[in-house]
Each structure stands twice: as C-alpha cells, then as structure tokens.
Amino acid sequence: MPDTPAAPAVLDAARLRALTREFLAAHPPAGTDRLDFLRARFDAGLAWVHYPEGLGGLGAPRSLQAVVDAELEAAGAPDNDPRRIGIGLGMAAPTILQYGTPEQRRRFLRPLWTGEEVWCQLFSEPGAGSDLAALGTRAVPGDGGDWVVDGQKVWTSSAHLARWAILIARTDPAVPKHRGITYFVCDMTDPGVEVRPLRQITGEAEFNEVFLTGVRIPDSRRLGAVGEGWRVAQTTLNNERVAIGGMRLPREGGMIGPVARTWRERPELRTHDLHQRLLKLWVDAEVSRLTAERLRQQLVAGQPGPEGAGMKLAFARLNQEISGLEVELLGEEGLLYDDWTMRRPELVDFTGREAGYRYLRSKGNSIEGGTSEVLLNIVAERVLGLPAEPRTDKDVAWKDLAR
Ligand SMILES: Cc1cc2nc3c(=O)[nH]c(=O)nc-3n(C[C@H](O)[C@H](O)[C@H](O)COP(=O)(O)OP(=O)(O)OC[C@H]3O[C@@H](n4cnc5c(N)ncnc54)[C@H](O)[C@@H]3O)c2cc1C
C-alpha cells in the first residue's frame, strides 16, 4: 500500500493549546531570557496567531489568540508589554501586513512585536488634525532614488522613544488633497529628524513636536503606491480606533475598577446620588467592554470598519464620566496630585496612578485617534448612512486650497 500523507492538523483551540504547551516545554519561562523567549514565541507563530506563518502567526482565527495567551499567562511567561508599544502593535503592524512588501514585513514585524523597536505615528500637523488630508509636509524625489522630506508634525506620542515612524507626506500638490499623499516608514534616528517635548495637562510630556528637515527616506521604505497614502492611512486609522476603544479588559479592568474599589472600601464617602451614578456607569462600562469583545470577534472576518469609531467614542465618554465621578467621590483627596515636574513616561498608566491623573489624562481621550465630533460624523455618514457634510474642497488641487 502506498503511504498516504498525514492530513494536516486542524488549527483549533485544542491544537493551539498543545502547540503552546510544547513551546513552553522547550522554552521554560523561568530559565529563558525575556527577549530570547519573545523572539522564539514570534518564530513559533504564537505571537499573533492570525498573522501568516513566518511573520509571527499560524494563519489561525484571530479569536484563538486568547487560548495561547491564557496558557502563557498560566505558565508565568513574560509578555511584550503591549501598553508600551501600542502604536506599533495596533497601527503600524496591520498597515505593514496589508501594504508592505515581503522584505518590509520581514524586516519590521519581528522587532516591532518583541518591543525591541518602538514605533510612533507622524500624521497630525499644526494645520492638519481632524482635516488630516490637508497636511503640508512635503516629500520630493531626491537624486539617488530616495525621497527628501521637509515639514512639521505635532502631538507625536512616543516620538522620543521611537526607532521608526509611520509617516504620511504630500508628494503631489497639484491634485486634490486626498490624492497627492504617500505613506512612508521614517527612521527616527536619521539626520534631520528633531524631536521636542510637548507638555500636556497632566504635567507630563507623552507627546512631541517633530521637525523634519531634508530627511532622506529610501524608496524601499514607501508603503503602498505613490499617491495612495490616504488609502493606506485608512487602514492605520481604522485600526487605531479599535486599538484605543477596543482593548481586551477583564470585568472592572478599566477606569471603573479603581472607583468601584474605593466605593467598596470607603463607606464614609457614599451618598445616594453617587450610588445611582456609579451603578449606571458600571453597567455602561460592562456593556462597552462586551461590545468591544464582539467587535474583536467581527474582526476575525476582516479589516476593522467604521464601527471602531463608535467604540472609541463610547470609550472616551465613559473614561471622562467615570474619572469625574471618582474625583467627586474622593472630594478634596481627589484633587491631590503627586508630582508636577515634567516627566517623559514610557506608557499611559490609567489604573496605576492617582485619581487626579486619570481625570486629567482622560480629557485627551476625546481628541486622540480622532475627536469625538469627527467620529460622530463618521458614524453618521458611514454607519447610519446619513447625508454627508458639504465638502467644497474635494475637487480642488491642494496647492489652491485656502490656508
Ligand atoms: C493624547 C494625544 C495623543 C496624540 N498622539 C498622536 C500621535 O501619536 N500622532 C499623531 O499624528 N497625532 C496624535 N494626536 C493628535 C490627534 O490625532 C489630533 O489632535 C486630532 O486629530 C485633532 O486634531 P487637532 O488637534 O488639530 O484639532 P482640530 O482638528 O483643529 O479640531 C479643533 C476642534 O474642532 C472640531 N472639529 C474639527 N473638524 C470638525 C468637523 N468636521 N465637524 C465637527 N467638529 C470638527 C474638533 O472636534 C475639535 O473640537 C494626539 C492627540 C492627543 C490628545
């Protein structure tokens, strides 16, 4: 009888659990260097299981990541500190996966996932925030087949920590604003890149202004076709909203956690009115958490769509209302603030800090990743199908726009 080849094992939860256990047996967390462990996890396809083989995944359904994560957590395995590398994981990686060349995917995704290389996002400019497509940073072809970039970006989170940036710049001013943009990967250590801290309401400088002066970017670091940058940026922005609004949280894992704890531990602070408001916000937080879970499951079927805008809207409103309630509950104590010296934090730590920090930092939630007003427009037009806002500049060349 001829040998029949063994049927490939089905990648279901049981198989992934078995693969993770085999991996843990070969790389016991207690005896393995953290970075070696993370690199080996990537190479074994257990980093993000829905990515292709060879790029940290196994081509498995995205929903099965939870199976791998649970096994690794139970074994005390180190993680890649996702809060520190959120822009890389949540925005740069899906864009590189969708638009990158095989060489770009191979070069960037592994150190991005292990956290060896931090990423930032050079999108917003002083004259282009909500109206991002109006951006004025210019990229012109240089003499050696590269691009020369000049301009100013602003509100760039983590630019001071980043090795790489996703960057959009104008390559053709003679066509309407959405059409003349190209998407690049910028090396933040290159000559001509200058990063200056911007201090925010919390006293910290989480973000920066970035000045780009004659920065040379090889054409091999262009993502997508010349002039197609707006389309590429939509992938980044849709993923950004899901990354901000759709984080996986255990019950009471978000802002509601600290306020619920204070409520339980400090009966002397309770009033009837605060009780009613806390109950309502607790339910809202739980609904929002479960909706985010459902949105993540829908992602299994494809790329995030405009629904992420709704999720991010709810997240911003909830964080601001809950942190406001917490400050009221604590009274004078809620106004105490530990330190006002300018710090350069490595991550946004919502739950590990004091109530005053949460209150101040959550103000930015309705601005970052698209303001709540702009997200309402997206929900109105692309989810509910309501008439679009009048846009008189759609067919006007960017160079002829009033500025
Ligand atoms: C904490 C934080 C981190 C950030 N990190 C980054 C980053 O890493 N990289 C990056 O590129 N950017 C970053 N940003 C910038 C952010 O994306 C922009 O601030 C945001 O898109 C708004 O742009 P703007 O500040 O220019 O405000 P504007 O666009 O000038 O808006 C001003 C006001 O007008 C309203 N408005 C504007 N247009 C409309 C409209 N069509 N309909 C109704 N209302 C409208 C807005 O809602 C807002 O209230 C960050 C911002 C914050 C707060």
From TrEMBL:
Residues 36-116 form the Acyl-CoA dehydrogenase/oxidase N-terminal domain. Residues 227-384 form the Acyl-CoA dehydrogenase/oxidase C-terminal domain. SUPFAM superfamilies: Acyl-CoA dehydrogenase C-terminal domain-like, Acyl-CoA dehydrogenase NM domain-like. GO terms for molecular function: flavin adenine dinucleotide binding; oxidoreductase activity, acting on the CH-CH group of donors. Residues 120-205 form the Acyl-CoA oxidase/dehydrogenase middle domain. The keyword Ion transport does not apply. Its cofactor is FAD. The keyword Plastid does not apply. Keywords: FAD, Flavoprotein, Oxidoreductase. It comes from the Bacteria. GO terms for cellular component: plasma membrane. InterPro entries: Acyl-CoA_Oxase/DH_mid-dom, Acyl-CoA_Oxase/DH_mid-dom_sf, AcylCo_DH-like_C, AcylCo_DH/oxidase_C, AcylCoA_DH/ox_N, AcylCoA_DH/ox_N_sf, AcylCoA_DH/oxidase_NM_dom_sf, Mycobact_Acyl-CoA_DH. PANTHER family: ACYL-COA DEHYDROGENASE, ACYL-COA DEHYDROGENASE FADE34. Belongs to the acyl-CoA dehydrogenase family. This is Acyl-CoA dehydrogenase family protein. It comes from Streptomyces griseoaurantiacus.
